[in-house]
């Protein structure tokens, strides 16, 4: 006679539940290892016990397998937020540079430089400004424009420093992924086997 279907339900007895967990966990880790060897499969297994203890098996580097899973599943990667931040600061730098160029051009016009390209309307406007008092216009506009240019340049330097910091962080994340792949898969498998054997003796 064949065995009847066993009903799966939560084991109420804490001791029996822990014993069953240990046996099934070791069996699952062993099956994962066998699957990776027999079928040359890339296998990663993560287990949290009822008490929160962590167990894992990885035929290859765990982070690489997780990254591959996220890519196949169409999930965003851990570096996406940094990439968006870099793009935001890049646009900010471009806008600030444009404002700086316009301010410096206005400053040059006020002191009589680079006015060859101005039309009649712009020249009349500039003349009216200068007629209100050459000395007052010169001193005030030079002071305000210089302060504005210095402030914008300082802000631009701050944004460029933040941009460099984010780029460095991206490189560190990338280099970390590369360095973690130095682990030999066979050594990882040996460690997992030792973990399985140790667990089976308990």
From TrEMBL:
Residues 79-113 form a coiled coil. Residues 86-176 form the K-box domain. Residues 1-61 form the MADS-box domain. GO terms for molecular function: DNA-binding transcription factor activity; protein dimerization activity; RNA polymerase II transcription regulatory region sequence-specific DNA binding. It holds the Pfam family SRF-TF. The keyword Cell inner membrane does not apply. One of its GO terms (biological process) is positive regulation of transcription by RNA polymerase II. It is found in: Nucleus. One of its GO terms (cellular component) is nucleus. This is Truncated transcription factor CAULIFLOWER D-like isoform X2. Gene3D superfamilies: Transcription factor, MADS-box (3.40.1810.10). InterPro entries: MADS-box/MEF2_TF, MEF2-like_N, TF_Kbox, TF_MADSbox, TF_MADSbox_sf.
């Amino acid at each position: 006679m064949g065995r009847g279907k066993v009903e799966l339900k939560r084991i109420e007895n804490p001791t029996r539940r822990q014993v069953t967990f240990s046996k099934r966990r070791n069996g699952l880790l062993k099956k994962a290892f066998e699957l990776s060897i027999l079928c040359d499969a890339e296998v990663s297994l993560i287990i949290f016990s009822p008490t929160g203890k962590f167990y894992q098996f990885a035929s290859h580097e765990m982070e690489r397998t997780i990254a591959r899973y996220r890519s196949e599943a169409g999930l965003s990667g851990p570096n996406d937020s940094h990439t968006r931040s870099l793009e935001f600061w890049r646009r900010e730098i471009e806008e600030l540079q444009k404002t700086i160029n316009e301010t410096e051009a206005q400053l040059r016009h006020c002191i009589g430089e680079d006015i060859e390209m101005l039309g009649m309307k712009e020249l009349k406007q500039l003349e009216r400004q200068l007629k209100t008092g050459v000395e007052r216009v010169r001193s005030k506009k030079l002071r305000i424009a210089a302060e504005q240019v210095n402030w914008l340049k300082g802000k631009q330097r701050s944004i460029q420093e933040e941009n460099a910091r984010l780029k460095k962080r991206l490189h560190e994340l990338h280099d970390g992924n590369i360095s973690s792949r130095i682990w030999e898969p066979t050594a990882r498998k040996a460690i997992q086997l030792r973990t399985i054997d140790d667990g089976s003796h308990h």
